[in-house]
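User: Structure tokens for this complex, please. No commentary.
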Amino acid sequence: MPVSPSLAARIVGIADPGDPRVADYRDIRDRDLVARGGFIAEGTVVLDHLLRSTRFRPTSLFLLKSRVAGLDARLSRVPPDVPIYVAERPVMDQVAGFAVHRGVLAHAMDRRAGDAPGGTGADTDRDAGEPRDLQGFLESSRRKGGPLVVAIGLANHDNVGAIFRNAAAFGASGVVLDATSCHPLYRKAIRVAVGTSLTLPFHHGAPADAIVERLEASGHHPLALSPRGRRRLAEMTGKPGLALVLGSEGGGLPERLMRRAETVRIEMAPGIDSLNVATAAAIVLARLYSAA
Amino acid sequence: MPVSPSLAARIVGIADPGDPRVADYRDIRDRDLVARGGFIAEGTVVLDHLLRSTRFRPTSLFLLKSRVAGLDARLSRVPPDVPIYVAERPVMDQVAGFAVHRGVLAHAMDRRAGDAPGGTGADTDRDAGEPRDLQGFLESSRRKGGPLVVAIGLANHDNVGAIFRNAAAFGASGVVLDATSCHPLYRKAIRVAVGTSLTLPFHHGAPADAIVERLEASGHHPLALSPRGRRRLAEMTGKPGLALVLGSEGGGLPERLMRRAETVRIEMAPGIDSLNVATAAAIVLARLYSAA
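Assistant:
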């Protein structure tokens, strides 16, 4: 399949793994990227989410040469000021520091990054479309409808990614992750989320106590999921403003929350006391979605 | 914590990574182990399942020295003819060929392994407690009650492991995996299954067509899970002999099955067309379990 002339004109060949133009892809370290407001998106499905996102924008693409022709239609949606770097596999793998099986990477930025910390401007970023402070985020989520998903102490990238995928599947309004949960823009989390973390609004980094306190203030009804939950899921019906609160399998949820919130358990076979947290969330969200 | 004298007497120290007594743990290759009817169990929870299993028996344990004292009670349940090898971390990691974070490994065998292929003896292995041929397995599963879970073309170890964990959580009678699905005793699958693959009966290796054909002959009602399913999950009620059939996200299920079986879909938000297969299975099994 030939590459269209308009696409061919945009492509920048990279032959030297040391080329500074692909520095954003060098030895990809999630922590460093995310600290700068950036991240790496991998694969075509994730790229599609990135191109639809209002909060994130691609700053460049880095593709395996053999993949370019097949991506023609998709690449036509990449803004014209975004460079498209292309390399052969050995160069690409050497830059990234791992085998880039899919051959499709994009570096992207949060449109909010680079603003003064603390925000001298408006609290709602017009470009990003969602408020950046927790209170504003919660209020905006409450207005949208659909359950909110709240993660406390979820440090596993797979679990955080899977929670986004499941939240998106069942119409959640957004995801709030506390400061001890892993960042949803780590590469592996984005991959497991199948890119939904780029389109489903999220807030990351507030202390758990502040989240618990502000949930109710913003009109949410916290529903804590726990093997010790007082109500059976089968008895639950959805209601507006539900916030499904998830804790780690080891640590569980803050006692204050367990005392104050409605708590729910999923009934399981005798002798089994837990499910994967993202799977448990999916079971609850699926039930609330089909009961709505 | 001191080690009890009875345990101390059983411990065999390993100082040389080349020691032939720990050959089963050397550069662990799932494929080779499973071809011989063996596998490696990792971590204490998986070890507990192994010690409860009727089908599998440990042939040896290999532990990090620092873990031994804390495992005293558990190790007293290990049959007395099973050697307990102990090493310092550098030796253990060098033998295994990876960093054994948990410091707890066991090599185990299927009690059926080593019998003449084709079986000159009885088709039901008294030690193993379950029939080894597909027809017998399906009939036994049908008598037990609880849904059967059938996996076709599931090559991902995480997904297969998670399917076992979810099947066990919701009272499934067993799991059937076709020949193109990955073996549930690969180390990573056992870990994600949290050991349930050692206690929940399974049959692996029959061709998909034979499975589809024999499901009905054994009195099962196949229920194929697919985004194209004709019925909504919310309309479903459980019935005895249900066999939940799962296909890969890419390949889907055989057309013959989709035509003949009852088919069900999980309703999702617009624009989302799939869930992780193990998550989708959990949603269906949880509903059948709570509706039973």
